[in-house]
């Protein structure tokens, strides 16, 4: 009778040995799996980081200035060449202006028309109606007499700017008065205000030389009476004289204390002695045509000071102006033959 299989002592020992050696293998396999999962996770995370970095780098590259190609450089050079040509054209235009080739001048300078002797601009303000009427009844012609004076070659106008509130009642009153009297020269680009007087003188000479072709351009304050025939005689004797800067020449101390009359905010520019340079009094000053043209051409860069006569004097220092000190134009003097006096 066949019995159940039996195991020998050696077989049992072999089996227990196999069992003991398989446990470390399982442990090693487990740790290998864990290590593989860890490495795979890190690789996946690194891949995501690389994608993120690549995107950031791409954005960075797009934002960085691109390297100019040869065509780009040629385009830049072309723009510079165009800019140079524009500068040259502006210089040519400036030269043309200095030689009298202005639109308004061409209209006024037709061969059939005689060149004017003078354009006289009498400063006025919005509140000076009574003063204007006084002048119209004394030395300043009005109506038909004003037209006849223009036929003699002398244009006289009250000079005024516009209100800060353009088109308000102040402007309307001046327009209405001008429609009746026809004796205003309105500076459309200038704001009429006491603190803007130095700029007003620049606007006056610049605009007057564009509107009338004359030998001389004259600025007169609104508190000055004029011997008109005496002034015309003085100008007639100087007809044809270029670069003439005519007036009652003076100089004086610069007022550096704020709040005092004639205070000059930029007093420190006049040196340690605080003394003004030689200049014509602002009550009545005369410029020949080429000097008025100089102001017109360079008006954008001409510096103004606190007072209009100082401003004009500073402009004349930069050109070859002929200073003519005529005592007859000292309105406060006691000379019998003076052509102006304080009203």
TrEMBL record:
Record-linked Pfam families: DUF4094, Galactosyl_T
EC number: 2.4.1.-
Alphabetical keyword list: Glycosyltransferase, Golgi apparatus, Manganese, Membrane, Signal-anchor, Transferase, Transmembrane, Transmembrane helix
Compartments it resides in: Golgi apparatus membrane
First-listed, main subcellular location of the protein, grouped into a coarse class: Golgi
Cofactor(s), by name: Mn(2+)
Domain DUF4094: 22-99
Coiled-coil region: none
Lipid bilayer topology: Single-pass type II membrane protein
Family as reported in the entry's similarity comment: Belongs to the glycosyltransferase 31 family.
Name of protein: Hexosyltransferase
The organism of origin for this protein: Hibiscus sabdariffa (roselle)
């Amino acid at each position: 009778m066949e019995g159940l299989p039996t195991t020998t002592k050696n077989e049992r020992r072999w089996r227990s040995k196999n069992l003991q050696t398989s446990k470390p293998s399982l442990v090693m396999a487990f740790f290998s799996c864990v290590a593989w999962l860890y490495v795979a996770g890190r690789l996946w995370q690194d891949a995501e980081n690389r994608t993120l970095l690549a995107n950031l780098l791409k954005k960075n590259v797009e934002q960085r200035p691109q390297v100019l190609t040869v065509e780009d450089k040629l385009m830049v050079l072309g723009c510079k060449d165009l800019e140079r040509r524009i500068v040259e054209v502006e210089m040519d235009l400036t030269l043309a202006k200095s030689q009298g080739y202005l639109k308004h001048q061409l209209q006024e300078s037709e061969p059939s028309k005689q060149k004017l002797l003078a354009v006289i601009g009498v400063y006025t303000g919005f509140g000076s109606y009574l003063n204007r009427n006084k002048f119209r009844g004394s030395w300043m012609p009005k109506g038909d007499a004003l037209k006849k004076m223009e036929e003699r070659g002398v244009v006289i106008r009250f000079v005024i700017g516009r209100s800060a509130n353009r088109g308000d009642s102040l402007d309307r009153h001046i327009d209405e008065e001008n429609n009746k009297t026809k004796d205003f020269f309105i500076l459309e680009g200038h704001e009429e205000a006491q603190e803007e007087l130095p700029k007003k003188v620049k606007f006056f000479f610049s605009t007057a030389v564009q509107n009338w072709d004359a030998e001389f351009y004259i600025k007169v304050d609104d508190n000055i009476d004029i011997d008109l025939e005496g002034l015309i005689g003085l100008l007639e004797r100087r007809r044809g004289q270029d670069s003439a800067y005519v007036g009652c020449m003076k100089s004086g101390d610069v007022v550096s204390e704020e709040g005092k009359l004639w205070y000059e905010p930029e007093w420190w520019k006049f040196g340690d002695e605080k003394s003004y340079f030689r200049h014509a009094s602002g009550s009545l000053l005369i410029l020949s045509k080429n000097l008025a043209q100089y102001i017109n051409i360079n008006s954008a860069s001409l510096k103004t000071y606190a007072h209009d006569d100082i401003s004009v004097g500073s402009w004349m220092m930069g050109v070859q102006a002929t200073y003519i000190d005529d005592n007859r134009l000292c309105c406060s003097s006691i000379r019998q033959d003076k052509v102006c006096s304080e009203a």
